């Protein structure tokens, strides 16, 4: 199985706080409107069939459903999915959540999705290229696939590990393992080998003084990539 039990455990221990915007998940709450609008601008979500890989407690999944998409969220974290289900009941925003590996889902529902999202997850799995292949299998011809992850270079180590975990203490120590960070060129390679076309990159920046996140063209730390399956 392409999953690291220690990674799953880390998220499991925090899962009950997933929807608390002041918790360890605060960064995900704060970046969500930015990534949602970026996705929606490239692939208008209303009426689309969407799958969110590594959905966790469902921050992105629910927001895409609110835009009018039919959303499936999958993850291997049992507690996060329970939290996701409860939140969906409370909010009245319907999402189909499933405890299943991306590769298994790709075998069951190949080519059924207009949009596939896989955010902040690749840097937590043993073999990210296999997840990219699963995403490529799930999307319809002509459909969109969106990833986000962390770049691997000294600046990313300084900002994403030392800065976020040790200085600003935005994330628990040990949240991110530098060795698993993925450079844009590595991710491009995975995407192309999976038969998808890279459409564009976007950087995500954080200003610690204003505490504001923004999208920009600096992909040196956090970044997103849009890909498409050829028709
Ligand atoms: N994508 C969500 C959550 C990111 S947190 C968001 O951006 O808001 C990372 C998530 O990846 C956690 O929910 C964790 O359980 C999940 N994860 C880690 N390894 C996984 C794997 N091998 N398969 C599926 N999900 C995994």
Automatic annotation (TrEMBL):
It holds the Pfam family Methyltransf_23. Coiled coil: none annotated. S-adenosyl-L-methionine binds at residues 35, 54, 75, 119. CDD domains: AdoMet_MTases. It catalyses: a 3-(all-trans-polyprenyl)benzene-1,2-diol + S-adenosyl-L-methionine = a 2-methoxy-6-(all-trans-polyprenyl)phenol + S-adenosyl-L-homocysteine + H(+); a 3-demethylubiquinol + S-adenosyl-L-methionine = a ubiquinol + S-adenosyl-L-homocysteine + H(+). It comes from Duganella rivi. This is Ubiquinone biosynthesis O-methyltransferase. Belongs to the methyltransferase superfamily. UbiG/COQ3 family. It comes from the Bacteria. Keywords: Methyltransferase, S-adenosyl-L-methionine, Transferase, Ubiquinone biosynthesis. The lineage of its organism: Bacteria, Pseudomonadati, Pseudomonadota, Betaproteobacteria, Burkholderiales.
């Amino acid at each position: 199985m392409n999953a690291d039990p220690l990674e799953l455990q880390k998220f499991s221990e925090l899962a009950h706080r997933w929807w608390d915007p002041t918790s360890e998940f605060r960064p995900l709450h704060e970046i969500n409107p930015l990534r949602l609008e970026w996705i929606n601008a490239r692939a208008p979500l209303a009426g689309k069939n969407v799958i969110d890989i590594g959905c966790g407690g469902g921050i992105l999944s629910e927001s895409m459903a609110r835009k009018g998409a039919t959303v499936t969220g999958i993850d291997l974290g049992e507690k996060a999915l329970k939290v996701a289900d409860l939140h969906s009941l409370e909010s009245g925003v319907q999402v189909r959540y499933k405890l299943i590996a991306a590769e298994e889902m790709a075998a069951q529902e190949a080519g059924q999705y207009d949009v596939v999202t896989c955010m902040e997850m690749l840097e937590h799995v043993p073999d990210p290229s296999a997840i990219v292949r699963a995403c490529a299998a799930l999307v319809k011809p002509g459909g969109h696939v969106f990833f986000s992850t962390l770049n691997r270079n000294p600046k990313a180590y300084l900002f994403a590990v030392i800065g976020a975990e040790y200085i600003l203490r935005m994330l628990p120590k040990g949240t991110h393992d530098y060795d698993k960070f993925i450079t844009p060129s590595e991710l491009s390679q995975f995407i192309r080998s999976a038969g998808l076309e890279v459409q564009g990159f976007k950087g995500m920046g954080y200003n610690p003084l204003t505490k504001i996140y923004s999208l920009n063209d600096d992909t040196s730390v956090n970044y997103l990539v849009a890909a498409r399956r050829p028709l």
